[in-house]
Amino acid sequence: MQWTDQIRRIKIILVIAAVLIAVVSLVVSRFLVHDLYAEERTRMEVWAEAMRSLSNADETTDLNLVLKVINENNTIPVIVMDSNGEATTFRNLKVKADNYTDSMNYATKIGHRLQKSGKAIKIDLDGDDSDDYNNYIYVCYDDSIMLKRLSVWPYVQLGVVMIFVVIAIFALLTSKRAEQNKVWVGLSKETAHQLGTPISSLMAWTEILRENYPDDTLIPEMANDVNRLQLIADRFSKIGSLPEPVPTSLNEVINHVVDYMSKRTSQKVTIKKEMPDGDTIVKLNASLFEWVIENLCKNAVDAMEGSGCITLHTEDTYDKVIIEVSDTGKGIKKKDIRNVFTPGFTTKKRGWGLGLSLAKRIVEEYHHGHIFVKNSELGKGTTFRIELRK
User: Fold this and answer.
1) How far is Cα 385 from Cα 370, in angstroms, rounded to an integer?
2) How far is CA 244 from CA 239, 361, 374, in A?
3) Is 142 exposed, middle or buried (0-12, 13-18, 19+ CB in 10 A)?
């Protein structure tokens, strides 16, 4: 759980850092956009005054400075409209038209839009700002390409930061999962290796006892337990590899689990089977899949505290096989449901928290299925559901 808490803290730190970067970027960009907008407004006012001077010029007027101001505007789209609301000229505007008339109509349409948005400067050509005269023009202007890019850039930056955070979290989780897999494989193989020698010795001693005491009824039970140990060692050895599933009778697997659990649980625990009449064949590694069902049944017994009913329900649909293990135990808290398959998570006083994580690995990685908590109610019980593709 310590590693899980550390991962959670790192994710929170990454998200907070991304939010702070985005907020600072948005604030700084807004100040820059505001300053650039004010500068472009000032430039347009000077450009409009140059247009007034050009319109009122006579043969004695020096137009060098006026023309220089007008021609230096190579970035800000501008449209000059007369008092009738018709465009007379434009500059730095991408026109979507094939001839002059269509070009001016398009510019007029854009000019009206800019007027409505407040991006227009009224110039009285007679030098009087009164609305009583009709000798005036409107200089309509749009934001420059630089200003538009600067306005969009914070959102692009925010997207890049969020993508970086997602990739960083994904890499972190992948690294954690790879490390866990190495631990699982190493632990499983070492456990199988360590169990091999004493199990072989026990099997030999069992055979000697069987020969010397052929009528003893306890020796066959001892042999069964030794065989059980051999099966457990075999399961651990398969965890580190990818065993090939083969067509197997699901009914037979369920029956084996029920027979095993019935002999090792209290008589107060009832195990019910709900299976179709016909046999259900599905690709399984029987040894490992029995382990999954056994783990679910053992957890159910613990949840019921040795008294209640376990129901094993199977369905054979057209595209998948469904196995459900239900109990009448104490249930799982809603906040814990998402963590039940996390390695190390357990609600028991004595437990490693590995059973359900192993079950998830076996179902999803080895059998390409899906295992999840279908439903759980406190005081009523829990249902685990396994879905396998046919």
Assistant:
1) 8
2) 12, 15, 28
3) buried
pLDDT digits (tens, 9 = 90+) for 246-255: 899 999 999 9
- C-beta neighbour count of 100 within 10 angstroms: 9
| Long-range contacts of residues 354-362, Cβ cutoff 8 Å, at least 24 apart | 355/295, 355/298, 355/299, 356/295, 356/299, 358/239, 358/291, 358/292, 358/295, 359/291, 359/292, 359/295, 359/296, 361/184, 361/239, 362/288, 362/289, 362/291, 362/292
CA distance 312 to 236: 25
128 pLDDT band (50/70/90 cuts)?
A: low
Pairing mode, strands 269-274 and 308-316: parallel
| 232 or 261, higher pLDDT | 261
**Is 114 within 8 Å of 79 (Cβ atoms)?**
yes
Two tokens at 42? 């000032």
**Amino acid at the residue 361:** R
Residue 4 is predicted with a pLDDT of 56
Quote the tokens at residue 79: 């449209």
C-alpha closest to that of 93 among 61, 122, 105, 85: 105
Q: Round to whole Å and give the CA distance between 136 and 133.
A: 7
Number of residues that make up the chain:
390
Contact criterion met (CB below 8 Å) for 362 and 288: yes
Is the CB of residue 92 less than 8 Å from the CB of residue 77? yes
pLDDT band at 1 (very low <50, low <70, confident <90, very high): very low
Give the model confidence (pLDDT) of 305-360 as tens digits.
Answer: 888 999 999 999 888 999 999 999 999 988 888 888 877 667 666 655 677 888 89
CA angle 307-309-311, nearest 5°?
Answer: 150
Neighbours of 339 (CB within 10 A): 17
Helices (H), ranges, the chain: 2-55, 64-71, 100-116, 145-212, 218-239, 250-263, 286-304, 334-337, 355-361
What integer best gives the mean pLDDT of the chain? 82
- Tell me the pLDDT tens digit for each residue of 20-66: 877 887 788 888 888 888 888 888 888 888 887 877 776 666 677 77
